[in-house]
Design goal:
The complex is a heterodimer.
Chain A: E1 4-5, E2 11-14, E3 19-25, E4 32-38, E5 45-50, E6 54-58, E7 61-66, E8 71-76, E9 85-92, E10 101-102, E11 106-111
Parallel strand pairs in A: 2-11
Antiparallel strand pairs in A: 1-3, 3-8, 4-5, 4-9, 6-7, 7-8, 9-10, 9-11
Chain B: E1 5-7, E2 10-13, E3 19-24, E4 31-38, E5 42-50, E6 53-57, E7 64-68, E8 74-78, E9 87-94, E10 103-104, E11 108-112
Parallel strand pairs in B: 2-11
Antiparallel strand pairs in B: 1-3, 3-8, 4-5, 4-9, 5-6, 7-8, 9-10, 9-11
Classes of the chains: A mainly beta, B mainly beta.
Chain lengths: 112, 113
């Protein structure tokens, strides 16, 4: 069974620090990887996607993918209180049958 | 470009009733996926439609059904509502030719009393 694992948290980070969120996946043939941010009571919002090994940067966000170790991470630099949310990792496995596999999410709290 | 829209945004129903939720995808997107989200269960996949065809279905009872129209708009229906069906129902659209990034609508909050 294809799985995506995330630490549920909460992960508490001081304002201005780097928040590091991690996600591991079981299907070695997975092809694309997504990070979503979800505020309480709201729908998930896509913030990053990555397809190739290495780093991808977008503003304060960096996604890192290591297919050999089967993990993907999200770094948030200069964390702000507005970054406090649950972060969901989603993976498109090989033979996905048009279904993303979702992690349960990590709750991030940025302390002013 | 307009985002994914869902109607209604909030709904209160009684046990035993049925409900229909609607989703309009981003213009040009042909795939619509439906999810149920509850506090303890996270995102649970219901089904995915592409060009009016259901390509995949999650592990939900037959009371949950859906369809997609030729303009890519999609509906899901839940019959004989149970208290446990209270949840946030989300739809997400994507291009669909491969499972690239999905974009979510605001969701429909269903409360069953």
């Amino acid at each position: 069974q294809k799985e995506v694992e995330q630490n549920s948290g909460p992960l508490s980070v001081p304002e201005g620090a780097i928040a590091s969120l991690n996600c591991t996946y079981s299907d070695r043939g997975s092809q694309s990887f997504f990070w979503y941010r979800q505020y309480s009571g709201k729908s998930p919002e896509l913030i990053m996607f990555i397809y190739s090994n290495g780093d991808k940067e977008d503003g304060r966000f960096t996604a890192q993918l290591n297919k050999a170790s089967q993990y993907v991470s999200l770094l948030i630099r200069d964390s702000q209180p507005s970054d406090s949310a649950t972060y969901l990792c989603a993976v498109n496995p090989m033979d996905s049958n048009y279904q993303l596999i979702w992690g349960a999410g990590t709750k991030l709290i940025i302390k002013p | 470009k307009a985002g994914v829209t869902q109607t209604p945004r909030y709904l209160i129903k009684t046990r035993g009733q049925q409900v229909t939720l609607s989703c309009s995808p981003i213009s040009g997107h042909r795939s619509v996926s439906w999810y149920q989200q509850t506090p303890g269960q996270g995102l649970q996949f219901l089904f995915e439609y592409f060009s009016e065809t259901q390509r995949n279905k999650g592990n939900f009872p037959g009371r949950f059904s859906g369809r997609q129209f030729s303009n890519s708009r999609s509906e899901m229906n839940v019959s004989t509502l149970e208290l446990g069906d209270s949840a946030l129902y989300l739809c997400a659209s994507s291009w669909g030719t491969d499972l690239y990034e999905q974009y979510f609508g605001p969701g429909t909050r269903l409360t069953v009393t």
